[in-house]
Amino acid sequence: QVQLVESGGGLVQTGGSLRLSCAASGRTFSSYTMGWFRQAPGKEREFVARIMWSGSSTYYGDSVKGRFTISRDNAKSTVYLQMNSLKPEDTAVYYCAARTSSINPWRYWGQGTQVTVSS
Q1: What is the DSSP string of 8-60?
Q2: How many H-runs (helices) and E-runs (strands) does the chain carry?
Q3: Which DSSP symbol is given to 100?
Q4: pLDDT for 48-97, tens place per residue?
Q5: Distances 79 to 3, 10, 84, 100, 118 between C-alpha atoms, Å
Q6: Whether 75 contacts 13, CB under 8 Å
Q7: So what's the pLDDT on residue 47?
Q8: Are 13 and 84 in contact (CB under 8 A)?
Q9: Nearest to 18 by CA among 56, 48, 61, 44
């Protein structure tokens, strides 16, 4: 069982930056693929980024590529999402997720943290 708790959301102006954190419980954190998703009001949940267990492989959604960076610290059981050059369309609730491998579904989810980008 893995529990995920996001933090770091807030209100920021266009062009600003935020760093989200996702703290995980469970002894097997280092073996999980971790991801970030977001959901804006009235829209479907959108994939943002994912990082493999070793941190050596990352993948981003087209809308955030070049602006967001996902990273992880297995010693701290924490995954991060550095968000730069934020735009109003980045406004959403951001969720952290975990899965055991790239072929398995995202099994564990956090409660989400709100990010609001003002124009």
Answers
A1: --EEEETT--EEEEEEEESTTGGGSEEEEEEE-TTS--EEEEEE-TTSS-EEE
A2: 0, 11
A3: S
A4: 999 998 888 999 999 999 999 999 999 999 999 999 999 999 999 999 99
A5: 13, 18, 17, 15, 25
A6: no
A7: 98
A8: no
A9: 48
